[in-house]
Amino acid sequence: MKQSHLFTKTQKFAPKDEITKNAQLLSRAGYIHKEMAGVYSYLPLGLRVLKKIEDIVRHEMDNIGGQEIRMATLHPSEPWKKTGAWNNVDVVFKINSRTEKEYTVGQSEEEIVTPIAGEYAKSYKDLPVMIYQIGQKYRDELRAKSGIMRGREFGMKDMYSFHSTQEDFDNFYEVAKDAYLRIYTQCGLEAKATEAAGGSFSEKISYEFMVITDAGEDDIFYCTSCSYCVNVEISKQNEADTCTRCNKGTLKRAKASEVGNIFDLGTKYAKALSFQFKDTEGKNQYPIMGCFGIGTTRLMGVIVEALSDDKGIVWPASVAPFDLHLVAISGKDKEKQALVSAKADELYTALHKAGVEVLYDDRIDLSTGVRLAESDLLGIPYRLVVSEKTLEKGAFELTTRATKDTEYVSTVQLIVGKIFKGSRY
Ligand code: ATP
Ligand code: MG
Which of 202, 206, 298 to mutate to test the pocket of ligand 1 (most atoms within 8 A of CB)? Predict the structure, then answer.
């Protein structure tokens, strides 16, 4: 994409009311646009990042047997009344219609997905089923101060699984946990699976996936030696205690953000919404249900919080809006500008053909300093500068955003080799 064509522009300052790093950087760089507290639109660059995150999640969910659907956003109130959530869950939006009916919008989808699964799964032979969607959620959150990390409208992948036996559920639970950890690694983050009580859903153990960041709302203890991690809120342990899992490391306290969680819901929703199947002896049973959430937009915010530097965002290659930022630079001399532009145009076409996603800053008349600062702010993993100097050299200047290392590369083949080395998942 040519930058002259991109309708968004970077901004020197973030909106005054944005206090978190993720919202400040993403707004300034033109990835998101705030509509009101906790509600953002995703602009071309932001949507590209979000889609890449979603694709990583989708790939892993498909890989463990998930089937993607798209559930309705507007929900009838009846199933919500049946499960009790209408009155018991404080973040449920309630909409009055002129038809005198009441509706809600999806804040979680147990009330919708359980009847869908129940319509088709009649026998133990039809189970397990794992159904997921990636889309918007709406919650009447009291505080929405963390930029895109806590929204009133936000992106989530939510999967629901239905099993004929507890054992089958327990096995799948571990499979899902591993898939979750792979997702965070691919997004360039280190997530720890906490051991925590299941909150309002169930009394059973659940996993919360935590990424250490000062912008997080949770407090965790984590082991300095193994992967043990626990939410401070529920823990009887103290900082500096010896880790109970490995008996080697000690516990450290840190702020963290929950980028996903998985719960055992038991038979609560199946009972409330009358989903039964016939077991091996022909008896009616309620399936064991699990729910598996990942905050896709929160994940994007946490990546910015965890990986940015004083110059701007540093995207991991796997979720960056583009692989490469091609920047054509020249002085005021029109003839020289034409030569540089011609070479940059040629590279743009060749790189595109080679499968590289390129953002091409073709605005050769604008100030070089401003454009390079802008390039740092945008955070694309590699920058390729074509200038009068590089034309003389017969090689282009390739800079890695994360390390600031610069090297000279002379051919498209070499550029492709450098930027795709180890970066494609
Ligand atoms: P939290 O404790 O942060 O409110 P939750 O327990 O309500 O999260 P779930 O309802 O299980 O979370 O949602 C699954 C995932 O969706 C969470 O792990 C988190 O990553 C994300 N999420 C939840 N609420 C929000 C929100 N208001 N804005 C952005 N992401 C959210
Ligand atoms: Mg919540």
Answer: 298
Report the distance separating Cα 12 and Cα 166, nearest Å.
55
What is the torsional sign of CA 144, 148, 150, 153?
A: positive
Compute the residue count for the chain. 425
* Best CA proximity match to 35, nearest among 192, 127, 152: 152
> For tokens 């996936």, what's the residue?
209
Ligand 2 midpoint to CA 297 (Å): 14
Nearest CA owner, ligand 1 atom 9:
293
Taking the centre of ligand 1 as the mean of its atom positions, its distance from the CA of residue 119, in whole angstroms, is 28
Per-residue CA distances from 314 to 123, 155, 321, 422 (Å): 50, 21, 11, 17
Rounded Cα distance between 45 and 187, Å, is 17
pLDDT digits (tens, 9 = 90+) for 6-30: 999 999 999 899 999 999 999 999 9
**Residue ranges around ligand 1 (CB below 6 Å):** 108, 139, 141, 150-151, 154, 156, 258-261, 293, 295, 297-298
224-256: b or e for each residue (b if 16 or more CB lie within 10 Å)? eeeebbbbbeebeeeeeeebeeeeebebeebeb
Give the residue-averaged pLDDT of 279-305: 98
Pick the CATH number of 324-420 from 3.40.50.800, 1.10.150.120, 3.30.470.30, 3.40.50.300: 3.40.50.800
Range 145-150 average pLDDT: 95
Query: Where, residue-wise, is CATH 3.40.50.800 in the chain?
Result: 324-420
**Ligand 1 atom at shortest distance from the alpha carbon of 291:** 11
User: What pTM does this model have?
Assistant: 0.96
3-state secondary structure 398-421: EEECCCCCEEEECCHHHHHHHHHC
| 421 vs 156, higher pLDDT | 156
Specify the pLDDT at position 4: 97
Site to probe by mutation for ligand 1, drawn from 159, 261, 294 as the one with most ligand atoms within 8 Å of Cβ, is 261
Summary mean pLDDT of the chain: 95
Q: Where exactly does CATH 3.30.930.10 map onto the chain?
A: 3-307
In this structure, the residue with its CA closest to atom 19 of ligand 1 is: 295
**Which superfamily does CATH assign the domain made up of 3-307 to?**
Bira Bifunctional Protein; Domain 2 (3.30.930.10)
